[in-house]
Structure formats: structure tokens, C-alpha cells
Design brief:
Length: about 325
């Protein structure tokens, strides 16, 4: 499996700002960021993920142009999920936003903001962000874990990203064969049991109104049924992480999203299950950390790190 060595130029050697954008199902947000990681401006917009390509791209355009209007850009990077052709800057398979499949989004953004543009998988950019700006500084091997409405893991192994270009981030690994159907059409994907959508489904089945982990944890204090759901959710997250630990032994898992904001007890349940399932021991014994990046902006900052690492790319 190929990787990318992470090496960066000193921030002082660059001038201007970078445009970092993140495209999620139903939401696009972005920021204008200088090479030191300082945020100069932000914008965000929501949209219907089942809408047409024109509608989705119009939202992306409004965020991008609003941020780029008054700045000299050193580059632009867009993070997204799904299967991507990063060399050509194209969206290949986007289960939650099918209208974007085949879209040459990097060329579009480059022309729109008059700057070189890159497309990269959000899981890998999150690793870059952690390594350059966050809890992964000084680490050669670790895994960066996105939790909540999205799910994915990016892995840095001995200074290299372990992922093929445009590859998946683990959300669709099969962990519960022939059980819940995933939006990708398969059954038993990790995503079906380890995202906020699973918590909402449990709420519907139990007649509860809680729709995120924080509200489930509050109810769990007095309701044993809620406590059982929260415990199972922690174990579901650990199930996928244990597979990654067995294969790559990253040891350190940096949590982002709702698991990072949850109670210490929730994370202890993840860690206990992870250690029980993986049992690697030694220096690679699993351990958890939470993101140290304010606002959990690792993906946006990872875009800046990627541009610093690569240098300003050539215009297509």
C-alpha cells in the first residue's frame, strides 16, 4: 500500500492565505487560513444532499467565492468523502450525494477562485491536520477517527499515509454481515452501527426523542435502557477500531466529533472494548486521545498542511 511522506516547509516561508473547504452531505463549510494555521474568515451553508448537481455546486460556489473575494490565495483544497480520483480532482462515487458522481470539482474550483485547487479525502486530511497542528504532532504512527454523523479513519504509519489515492476510510468495512442495510447497498457496514444515525434509529425503536450522543448520555443517568444503548454504541465504535488495530497497529487513536465531546466514561468503554478485541500488547497497546484542535477543525487545517507539504500545485 502506497503512502505519502509528511514533510512541511516552515510556515514563515509562505505568504498569503489558503482556502480550505469541506463538503459533507447537506453542508459545506470553509475557511480562509494562513500558513500558521490562523483562521482569518469562515463561511458555512446547508443544502439538500439529494438535490441536483447544480444546486449543490451553487452552495459550494457561494462559500468559496465569499471567502476568496478579497484575498490572494496560495491554493485551494476541498475535502470530501466517498471514492475520489484525487489525481484528476474528480468525484467518483458519492453515496450520499449521487448527483456529484463524475464531477470535476477541482478544475471547477480552480477556475472559480483563480488559484490551484486540490481534491482530497477528508479522512486523510484529518490525519494531516492532527499531525501538523494537533494531537499527532511528534507522532510517527497514529489513527485519526471521525465520529458522529460521519465515520472514518485515516492512518499515519511511520510518517506515511496508509491509503490508496481516493480510497475509502473504513466506514464501509463489513462488521455485522447480513444485518442492517447500508446506504451503499451492502449489509453490515461499520457505518450502519457506529454513527449518529444508528442512535436515532434506536430512539425510534424505543420511543425516545434523543437524537445525538450527548442527549443519550444525559438520559442514561436515570434510564437503564438509554445506558444500554450508549454502551452498545461505544462497543460498536470499538469494533471497527479493533480491526484497524489488528491490521496496522497504530496504537494511538485520536478521536474527533461526538466521541471526543462525550463523557470520559464513554471513551473508557471504547478503550476497554478495543483492548479486549485487539490484544496486541507492548508498545502498540491501544490508547485514546481527543482532538486538541479548537473547534475540531482538523480537516480544514489538514488542507493547509497538504498544500504546505506539496508546495503550490500547478494550474491545470
Amino acid at each position: 500500500m502506497s503512502g505519502r511522506v509528511l514533510s512541511f516547509e516552515p510556515p514563515a516561508s509562505r505568504e498569503g492565505s489558503f482556502l480550505a473547504l469541506e463538503l459533507l452531505p447537506g453542508r459545506v463549510h470553509g475557511a480562509l487560513i494562513d500558513p500558521s494555521g490562523r483562521f482569518r474568515a469562515r463561511r458555512e451553508l446547508t443544502f439538500d444532499p439529494s438535490g441536483s448537481r447544480e444546486e449543490i455546486m451553487a452552495g459550494l460556489d457561494r462559500v468559496a467565492t465569499g471567502l476568496a473575494r478579497s484575498s490572494r490565495l496560495g491554493g485551494c483544497v476541498l475535502s470530501a468523502g466517498g471514492v475520489l480520483d484525487t489525481a484528476r480532482g474528480r468525484m467518483v462515487q458519492v453515496v450520499d450525494m449521487p448527483a456529484l458522481e463524475g464531477c470535476a470539482v477541482a478544475d471547477h474550483l480552480s477556475a472559480l477562485v483563480d488559484a490551484p485547487a486540490l481534491l482530497e479525502h477528508r479522512a486523510r486530511l484529518q490525519v494531516h491536520g492532527d499531525h501538523y497542528f494537533g494531537a499527532g504532532q511528534g507522532e510517527e504512527t497514529f489513527a485519526s477517527v471521525a465520529t458522529g454523523g460521519t465515520l472514518g479513519v485515516g492512518i499515519l504509519y511511520q510518517g506515511m499515509i496508509l491509503a490508496p489515492d481516493g480510497g475509502r476510510s473504513g466506514a464501509h468495512m463489513t462488521v455485522a454481515s447480513r444485518q442492517l442495510e447500508c446506504s451503499c447497498g451492502k449489509y453490515g457496514c461499520w457505518r450502519t452501527i457506529a454513527t449518529t444515525a444508528w442512535l436515532r434509529q434506536q430512539g425510534r425503536e424505543l420511543g425516545m426523542i434523543e437524537n445525538d450522543l450527548a442527549s443519550w448520555e444525559r438520559r442514561a443517568v436515570e434510564d437503564p435502557r438509554a445506558a444500554a444503548v450508549v454502551g452498545e454504541y461505544a462497543e460498536n465504535l470499538a469494533l471497527g477500531l479493533a480491526n484497524i488495530q489488528q491490521l496496522c497497529m497504530p496504537g494511538l487513536f485520536i478521536l474527533h466529533g461526538e466521541a471526543a465531546r462525550a463523557s470520559a466514561g464513554f471513551r473508557e468503554r471504547i478503550l476497554a472494548t478495543l483492548r479486549d478485541l485487539s490484544r496486541t500488547g507492548g508498545e502498540t497497546e491501544p490508547r485514546l486521545a481527543t482532538t486538541t484542535i479548537v473547534g475540531d477543525d482538523a480537516t480544514l487545517l489538514g488542507g493547509v498542511a497538504l498544500l504546505l507539504q506539496r508546495g503550490v500545485p500547478s494550474r491545470r
